[in-house]
Design a protein that fits this description.
Helix content is 38%, strand content 10%. It has 234 residues and is of the alpha+beta class. It has a single domain, classed as Glutaredoxin, CATH 3.40.30.10. It has a 6-stranded mixed β-sheet, sandwiched between helices. A hairpin with a 2-residue loop joins strand 5 and strand 6. It is globular, with a radius of gyration of 17 Å.
Length: 234
Amino acid sequence: MLTIGAIFAGVVLVGVVAAGQLGGKATGTFKDPKLEYPAALIDGATIGKADAPVTLDVYGDFQCPICARYSLTVEPDLVAGYVVPGTLRIVHHDIAILGDRTPNDESKIAAVGAACATDQGRYWDYTHWVYANQDGENNGGFARDRLTSIAEAAGVDVSGFPACLDDSARVVAVATTTGDAGNRGIISTPTLAVNGQLLQPGLPTTAALGGLIEAAAASAAPGGSPAASSSAAP
């Protein structure tokens, strides 16, 4: 089993995908995150080969600024350094814990929008555009009209998008994912898990995550020693 101490073993990754800038955005003016992942590796909210030895589960809230930092500046390096070579598979779980619990809860609406974008094969485009265009929390940054405009900028066909945001099945699915995360003890975002083992809340560096991924891959290899990945001091 891996331990959080393993994050102190790392490698320096050099990403090949540029990341967009973060920060507040004027309504109606959106920043292009300038990110594109290999289409052949994408399956809904998952990217990577099905037989990759390491799975990274990512629990994020679209209103979380640190989640945006992960999505736009850390994850592209992981995709380039580990997903493309076949070592890593990344699975996103979009949860809603930062919203105001009203019918216009922006965390919930943004997460439902991700499901709608997934139906069109646009999950990752949507995710990058939404994170790149945060505008504070619970103050209209992801109001329905603005979110719809962001989705359109990401390439989503928005002809049915507003109605999709109210689709009961998708709303329930987001609530279920959020509840399941809570049952796992996830109370903040981003929270990451490597091969099922939760890391401490927050965002490790790219190098630290690289160390965890390499340790997990070594453990999964024939003759690998799981104990070796636990040798670092916590």
